[in-house]
Write a sequence for this structure.
């Protein structure tokens, strides 16, 4: 079975908007009957998605493709942490940033790494207004 | 060889909730039934319409009516009355004789319709036959109506729902086979919107004609019959007819009676204005039993069309059935509105540049965090205020207009009450007249009446609120970064002296939309609320200004298809013994300045 992995070069997973994010993708493909890797390309994506009570929303902010990858390999990607939306966690909605590495075509194999992108590299936390009053 | 393709973009995706392959299979099967049924009905209807239309290409030929008589087949429960008309015509160099009046026969469940045909094609009368030029033996006297063609779109809606639903189910299944979160395409939400629109249209298209057939038309008949003249009729025969259908056997009252009106003899078998048949035998048997053969009864005759007569012109509980298709139609409207509102745009919030202090009080704040605002203009996850310059002083417009609210409530209230009150009044009259179980529908309809009264109350409340003073809010900018100061100036247009206390509140809230069963539910949670102004000073209520800081550690606005973070200014004015001022205005809070603005 093919193996994919994705990590940041320095191990950090929290970034402030505008910071450079350096990603390291590594892979090891199975060979098909003709001795070729079972993927034509690899694609790295930076996207955000929501979790929580509402139906999930997903938007991709950046992507980069590696065509005709070798059977095993490693590749570095660079992108910039978008200015928004911030990673946040509220009563109803949690917004998460992630990077993922997928094989093409078919996206049969996926590796994902969750990130935090917010001012100070700290997720924004929202509490209900009445809780704020209660805690004051 | 490594080929890199770079690019920054935002691709919208709105994933639906998950379901396994079982759910996909169920979806495909469910929508497959829609598709097959729709196709079958489309083909059948199209074939019937084309066949009817072909008659209009036939040759019109003079014909002579040889004989004309009414035949009653008491063993036929669905169409016991036949207008048998024999006529002769010349075609293809030969004399032809035919008994084919209409393309599909001249049998009816309503003897009045058979009588009308016989009156039109009486013995010895000259008529016009329509002859198939390719087969002169084939002819009819009456060409079929083509209005049925208008209904071809009905089964097509089912075809569209079925095909669209199957495609969506299959695609959803494929999406879930991958585990890539970013590939959960927007089709879920888009398809959901389309399905809601098409389903709404289907419900409406079915509900309206059914409401007309089972609700409006019978009620109109009942109302019109109040002025029909009464005549004495003699019962010829009476029976409870049974009709087999997929839902089991249903029954209808069939009492055949004759009467004279203005010197002419007529037959009718209509007991009342009900259409079709229903379950429940005993009640109908009791009615037939109360009208034995030879009995003299009172019939009410339509003076402009004496073939139409009824024995009962009162309101009866079955007319409540007309509310069921009406509920379908209303559900269709609700679905369509829901589908249209799923756009996720921010079209309802608009404002105009200028206002009280344009270019003066707030101008000093222009340019703060300009890079963040400039970058924000490219972010499709931010609300679009549709302003020429949202970064300058702007007079905001309320999120919803009072007039639109009033008009919407008024229309809905009129439709609701317009349908429910006639039923209620008629059933109430019957109940007061002592018609036994007639209080049951009165009690049932009371629920609808109470809802209608609440709606009327809401209309009055909103109508009064339209005369309230109108807040005009001018802000330093309608789009500002977190951590910045929002300057607001207000001017209460109208009789602001009526307001005892004014509060202007800045509110930040989350909004999450999700499906629960077949309903779309929207939940809100407020995470920020702070008074910008709170005063009972009449001068301050009339005009004033204030500032408030958007906290630096809070969340900016976002507007996705199902999830939103909204920032609003709420204006609440207390007016004694009158609906309060309650208006809201949207602003957009954007992320703070970032070095990589273009990456938004």
């Amino acid at each position: 079975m093919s193996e994919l992995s994705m990590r940041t070069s320095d191990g950090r997973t929290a970034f402030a908007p505008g910071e450079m994010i350096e990603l390291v993708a590594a892979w090891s493909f199975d060979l098909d009957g003709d001795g070729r890797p079972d993927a034509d390309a690899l694609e790295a994506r930076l996207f955000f998605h929501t979790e929580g009570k509402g139906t999930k929303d997903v938007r991709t902010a950046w992507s980069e493709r590696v065509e005709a990858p070798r059977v095993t390999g490693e590749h570095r990607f660079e992108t910039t942490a978008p200015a928004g939306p911030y990673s946040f966690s509220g009563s109803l909605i949690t917004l998460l940033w992630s990077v993922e590495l997928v094989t093409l075509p078919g996206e049969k194999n996926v590796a994902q790494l969750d990130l935090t992108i917010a001012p100070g590299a700290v997720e924004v936390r929202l509490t209900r207004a009445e809780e704020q009053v209660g805690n004051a | 060889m490594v080929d890199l393709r770079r690019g920054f973009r935002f691709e919208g995706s709105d994933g639906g909730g998950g379901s396994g392959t079982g759910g996909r299979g169920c979806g495909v099967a469910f929508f497959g039934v829609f598709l097959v049924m729709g196709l079958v009905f489309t083909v059948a209807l199209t074939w019937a319409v084309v066949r009817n239309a072909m008659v209009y290409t036939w040759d019109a030929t003079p014909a002579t009516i040889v004989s004309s008589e009414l035949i009653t087949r008491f063993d036929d429960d669905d169409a016991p009355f036949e207008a048998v008309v024999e006529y002769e015509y010349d075609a293809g160099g030969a004399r032809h004789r035919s008994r084919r009046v209409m393309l599909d026969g001249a049998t009816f469940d309503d003897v009045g319709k058979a009588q009308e045909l016989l009156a039109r094609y009486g013995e010895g009368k000259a008529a016009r036959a329509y002859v198939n030029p390719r087969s002169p033996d084939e002819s009819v006297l009456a060409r079929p109506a083509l209005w049925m063609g208008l209904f071809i779109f009905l089964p097509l809606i089912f075809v569209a729902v079925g095909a669209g639903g199957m495609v969506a189910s299959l695609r959803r299944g494929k999406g879930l086979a991958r585990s890539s979160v970013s590939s959960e395409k927007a089709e879920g939400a888009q398809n959901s919107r389309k399905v809601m629109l098409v389903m709404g249209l289907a419900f409406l298209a079915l509900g309206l004609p059914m409401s007309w057939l089972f609700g409006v038309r019978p009620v109109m008949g009942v109302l019109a019959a109040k002025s029909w003249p009464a005549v004495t009729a003699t019962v010829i025969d009476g029976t409870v007819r049974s009709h087999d259908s997929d839902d089991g056997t249903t029954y209808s009252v069939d009492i055949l009676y004759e009467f004279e009106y203005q010197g002419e003899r007529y037959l009718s078998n209509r007991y009342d204005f009900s259409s079709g048949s229903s379950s429940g035998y005993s009640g109908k048997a009791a009615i037939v039993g109360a009208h034995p053969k030879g009995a003299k009864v009172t019939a009410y005759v339509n003076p402009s069309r004496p073939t139409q007569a009824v024995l009962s012109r009162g309101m009866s509980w079955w007319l409540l059935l007309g509310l069921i298709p009406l509920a379908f139609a209303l559900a269709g409207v609700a679905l369509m509105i829901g589908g249209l509102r799923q756009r996720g745009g921010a079209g309802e919030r608009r404002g105009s540049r200028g206002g009280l202090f344009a270019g003066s009080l707030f101008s000093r704040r222009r340019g703060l965090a300009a890079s963040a605002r400039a970058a924000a203009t490219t972010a499709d996850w931010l609300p679009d205020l549709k302003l020429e310059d949202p970064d300058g002083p702007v007079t905001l417009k309320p999120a919803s207009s009072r007039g639109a609210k009033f008009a919407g409530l008024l229309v809905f209230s009129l439709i609701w009450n317009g349908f429910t009150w006639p039923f209620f009044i008629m059933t109430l009259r019957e109940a007061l007249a002592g018609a036994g179980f007639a209080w049951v529908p009165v009690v049932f309809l009371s629920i609808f009446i109470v809802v209608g009264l609440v709606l009327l109350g809401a209309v009055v409340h909103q109508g009064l609120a339209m005369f309230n003073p109108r807040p005009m809010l001018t802000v330093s900018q309608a789009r500002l970064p977190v951590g910045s100061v929002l300057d607001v100036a207000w001017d209460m247009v109208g009789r602001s002296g009526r307001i005892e206390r004014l509060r202007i509140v800045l509110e930040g809230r989350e909004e999450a939309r999700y499906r629960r069963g077949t309903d779309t539910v929207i939940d809100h949670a407020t995470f920020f609320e702070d008074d910008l102004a709170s005063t009972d000073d009449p001068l301050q209520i009339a005009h004033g200004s204030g500032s408030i800081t958007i906290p630096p550690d809070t969340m900016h606005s976002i507007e996705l298809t199902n999830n939103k973070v909204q920032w609003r200014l709420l204006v609440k004015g207390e007016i004694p013994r009158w609906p309060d001022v309650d208006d809201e205005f949207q602003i957009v809070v954007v992320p703070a300045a970032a070095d990589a603005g273009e990456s938004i």
User: Anything to note?
Assistant: The mean pLDDT of chain A is 87.
